[in-house]
Design brief:
Largest sheet: 6 strands, mixed
Strand order of the largest sheet: 1-2-3-4-8-9
Helix content: 25-40%
Number of strands: 23
Oligomer: single chain
Number of helices: 15
Shape: elongated
């Protein structure tokens, strides 16, 4: 039986705070269960952010005979004279509820069926969707619960993987026959489709505001293509992942690095510039090492490399080789880069080095094609001007990108209008393609607080080179570069930093020249 995720955070790790001992015990039983063509999905709640899907569903098993929802109860269960139930937690705390554990499981199974009905290609209401409870430390069924052995596993059913396998099979069989089936209810393709859809609800990650370094009180669903990268990273010793701006490369690194650290693996993230540290805020508290120029030097067992287009060269070879056990040729590494137009922004890209990384991995790059940062209007503005794979915008539609053909003073009016609309200047970045001095002088002369430190107070003033790999809610892009040939890569990087709004101040009408060249 395949289990998703493949492992749990080690006890004592911060990510393990939402995993009960009873769930951990049952997780290992599912991992050892020998049930053909079945997948068990375990619902994790990382860092206590967000809620579990479908009530408090612990496990969902999907197989050709149907779908079964499993609730795990590790504490005591007692029925009361007034019809209520007193439920004990793994920690020994009790609560009273009118809903029995089996009724809770039934309700959650109906929620799963209802959710699937709106999304799957088959008729979900026609397939077996059952429920059961697993009480791995309970000696007998609680009086008043009204359950049959096939839907309630006791301590005796959980004593070893073989016994547990037989019980799970009997549970699946019960719901399969109850629905009147004598042949498979789901085809192989339908099983795969169901697992794929449910995984998007169970396999989630905490959101991070990289400007402030704060973990947000919500979760990001991992996309289909990101799941593909995560699965490949589980199987291969070395992979190269390529994706355009906003495709979620750093998000996938965070996900993989945090989970590996939770398993007790010695993990490192190599970054080519210290300015990229905010992307990985909080990971060092989990045991992940941040490595690279200006940071620590250390050899780890599993290495992730971000913004590796700047390390496709001899320097990159040396850094990776010294940072991972087994070195460049035999170590376990995952390289993430953008081989788009920005790859040679700093003049560091060597295509032969890129080919070497590919030859040491799968022989080809795994690609992230979609865009999870920029709005559709920002994506449209970029693709009109430059040849770059920036992908389809997967976030909500955004405001139209505004363009002005004025000088630096126009920026004062734009900033004031933003403030009137409720935008905090701390959320605004002015990216300058050209000389910064006219912009900083204009801001100071108008008593507008500004700085050059990412995540600092006031308006951030920066360059494409400094902002590569980072992002900001609102970007004002000031373009004043006489050399049009040097503009495409810088424009691509600068414009793609914007999450919510992009405003172009372009006194020389350089954008129109880019569009004309791109479309000709």
């Amino acid at each position: 039986m395949k289990v998703i995720p493949k492992s749990l955070p080690k006890k004592g790790h911060i990510d393990a705070s939402g995993v009960k001992d009873s769930e951990r015990f049952v997780f290992e039983l599912f991992k050892s269960a020998q049930i053909q063509s079945a997948t068990a999905l375990h619902s994790l709640k990382f860092l206590n952010a967000g809620n579990r899907p479908f009530g408090e569903t612990d496990f969902v098993v999907v197989c050709p005979k149907g779908i079964v929802i499993f609730e795990v109860k590790g504490g005591s269960i007692r029925s009361n004279d007034d019809g209520t139930f007193t439920i004990g937690s793994d920690e020994g705390k009790n609560y009273t509820t009118h809903e029995s554990p089996i009724d809770q499981a039934s309700r959650n199974s109906m929620a799963v069926r209802s959710w699937l009905t709106q999304r799957v290609s088959y008729l979900a209401e026609d397939i077996p969707v059952g429920h059961a409870i697993v009480m791995p430390f309970q000696l007998g069924v609680v009086k008043g619960m009204n359950v049959i052995p096939q839907v309630a596993a006791l301590k005796s059913d959980c004593k070893d993987p073989n016994v547990f396998t037989r019980w799970v099979e009997s549970c699946i069989e019960y719901w399969w026959k109850k629905k009147g089936f004598s042949i498979d209810a789901l085809s192989e393709k339908e099983v795969e489709e169901t697992v794929h859809l449910l995984r998007g609800q169970f396999d989630v990650e905490t959101s991070l505001d990289i400007r402030t370094g704060r973990i947000l009180n919500r979760q990001d669903v991992i996309s289909d293509e990101q799941v593909r990268i995560i699965d490949a990273a589980d199987e291969a010793a070395r992979i190269v992942v390529s994706g355009g701006a906003g495709s979620g490369k750093s998000f996938v690194i965070r996900t993989l690095a945090r989970r590996a650290a939770g398993e007790g693996i010695h993990v490192g993230i190599l970054i080519p510039r210290p300015e990229l540290q905010p992307i990985f805020a909080g990971l060092e508290d989990l045991g992940v090492k941040l490595l690279g120029p200006g940071l620590r030097s250390e050899q780890v067992d599993l290495l992730f490399v971000d913004e590796a287009q700047d390390l496709c060269n001899e320097t990159g070879f040396e850094l990776i080789d010294s940072s991972v056990a087994g070195g460049l040729e035999h170590g376990r590494w995952r390289i993430f880069l953008d081989d788009n137009i920005q790859s040679n922004l700093r003049g560091l890209w060597d295509h032969a080095a890129y080919q070497l990384y590919l030859s040491l991995s799968l022989g080809f790059p795994l690609r992230l094609e979609d865009n999870y940062r920029n709005t559709d209007t920002i994506v449209d503005m970029i693709t009109l001007a430059v040849q770059a794979r920036i992908g389809r915008a997967r976030v909500s539609s955004g405001e139209e990108c505004q363009q002005f053909h004025d000088g630096p003073n126009k920026i004062v009016g734009i900033l004031n209008r933003m403030r009137e609309q409720g935008v905090d200047w701390d959320d605004v970045c002015i990216i300058v393609v050209g000389d910064l001095e006219p912009i900083t002088s204009m801001l100071s002369g108008n008593n507008i607080a500004w700085g050059k430190r990412f995540g600092g107070r006031g308006v951030l003033v920066s360059t494409p080179e400094e902002m590569q790999g980072l992002e900001y809610p609102h970007v004002i892009l000031y373009v004043n570069l006489p050399d049009i040939d040097a503009l495409p890569a810088r424009f691509y990087v600068a414009a793609s930093r914007a999450r919510a709004t992009l405003t172009l101040v372009d006194p020389n009408e350089s954008y129109a020249q880019l569009v004309e060249r791109n479309l000709s």
